[in-house]
Amino acid sequence: MAMTSSSQVARLLALVPYLQAHPDADLEQTAQVFHVPARQLVADLKVLWFCGLPGGMPGDLIEVDMDALAEGRIRLDNADFLSRPLRLSVEEAMSLIVALGAIQDMAGSDLAPAVSSARAKLEAVFGANHRIGVSLQAGEEAVRAALAGALGAGQTVRLTYHGASRGSTTHPVVEPASLATRDGYGYLTAWSRDRNDWRTYRLDRVSEVTLMSDPVGDHGEPPALGSGWLDDRPEAARVVVDVTPAGRWIVEYHPTVAVEERDDGITRVQLLVADPAWLRRLLLRLGPAVVRVDPPQAARSAIEAAREALDGQGRGGDVEDA
């Protein structure tokens, strides 16, 4: 299994309390507990050596006995601060409340009560009950529970999936790898047996999950979903729009991938478009300020809508393809 920085961070967070509860732990046995080779655990401990409280002075950092480690024993010291009550600023607490709100909609039945309880306690302490709302399109609870169960059991599933780009319902057979949220939506990353490649599925477009009898295979590390809505999204297309100075306002009002100011006064704007209807409205609003759209088919519905509007006014034929 490939080692990633995110998996190492999660392992380190669990490793410290484990070692505090098991002083003078055996290296090989601890490696087995965390399902990693002993050499990886040694690498983790060398990272842990540079972790601790702000300041970075010797008394601030976690201490690992390297002499004992060379003999196959793990001895940890100066990590007692992790057991102290956590003190949060208002900003930190609000960030946690928002994050817990997003997790709550994605959590399975085994995790949801704990997440809900933690969020309620933070809201009660910081008085945020009526100030923060989190809206997440994470699909039906039964769908999330079925996918979480398949992930835990390593089972293949068949989805009933309603794709937005093609407007059709498909039934892909996939091997679930992870569930995640981004930009207010829940996603499943899975290996598609039909496409023989990694695919990402929006959970609010999955209406049914059927468990299959065969287990998942080893396809390596799944691709990262990304950290923001300006990253390449599974359903997004990159569209280039050339506009005159009258249309340059879109750079100030809409997130862009790239902006190029040309010598002829034209601004070339690259956008990520996940909703064709949004692009159609944008192009209609820009009107004659649009000089070119690439790919051309991205502007087709806007052109047709403009022609229909002009036909209704008896002015057909005034709209040219961009």
UniProtKB/TrEMBL annotation:
PROSITE patterns: WYL. Pfam families: HTH_PafC, WCX, WYL. Residues 8-124 form the PafC HTH domain. It comes from the Bacteria. Residues 237-310 form the WCX domain. Residues 145-210 form the WYL domain. This is WYL domain-containing protein.
